[in-house]
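Q: Given only this backbone (189 positions), what sequence would you predict?
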């Protein structure tokens, strides 16, 4: 059984997404991602604990996004460059000459795949897109549909693009999140 202390350590360890996912559980804290800790947390008033997690998560995710955007336009490489070059392993779902799709390291749904252009070409975020990017943007969207089929979620899935700090984008290499395998809610957070 995990302790509360361990759970807060986990929130500090990663981005706010840990906390957001923890918040989604009713009566227990569920932490997903690398196997650095999974467990139940017993508290007398779990809803208050979850609210605390939520606030901490929102703050840390915003802070992480602000930090990330500071380096975004410097041309600096991102973790996705290392995934493209296979320097860092990933679970690849689909690949062609222009597009790579791989499972998110911190899934927010039973199926959660990131679809990225292999050549960033200035597309640090959707908000930086120019007309010359129209073709690759179309390819990314079509690849999202192929990914949904491969993941068995073509009947219902969501595609998300976080663009910029107020959308909590954390990696400045354009990417589509393809999410499915559970009921999605609206409006999104
Ligand atoms: P954003 O917050 O920028 O919209 O999404 C970035 C996504 O990249 C996050 O969902 C995060 O979990 C994922 N991510 C960050 N680092 C890695 C990594 O090293 N491997 C994989 N597979 N996903 C990553």
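A: Predicted residues:
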């Amino acid at each position: 059984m995990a302790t509360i202390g361990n759970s807060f350590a986990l929130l500090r360890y990663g981005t706010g997404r840990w906390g957001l996912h923890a918040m989604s559980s009713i009566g227990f804290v569920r932490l997903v991602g690398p196997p650095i800790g999974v467990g139940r947390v017993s508290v007398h008033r779990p809803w208050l604990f979850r609210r605390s997690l939520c606030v901490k998560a929102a703050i840390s995710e915003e802070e992480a996004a602000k930090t990330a955007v500071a380096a975004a336009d410097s041309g600096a490489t991102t973790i996705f460059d290392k995934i493209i070059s296979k320097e860092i392993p990933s679970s690849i779902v689909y690949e062609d000459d222009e597009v790579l799709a791989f499972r998110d390291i911190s899934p927010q749904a039973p199926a959660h795949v990131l679809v990225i252009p292999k050549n960033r070409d200035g597309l640090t975020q959707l908000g930086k897109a120019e007309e010359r990017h129209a073709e690759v943007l179309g390819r990314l969207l079509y690849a999202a549909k192929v990914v949904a089929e491969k993941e068995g979620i073509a009947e219902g899935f969501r595609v998300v693009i976080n663009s910029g700090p107020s959308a909590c984008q954390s990696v400045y290499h354009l990417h589509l999140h393809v999410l499915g395998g559970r009921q999605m809610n609206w409006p999104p957070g």
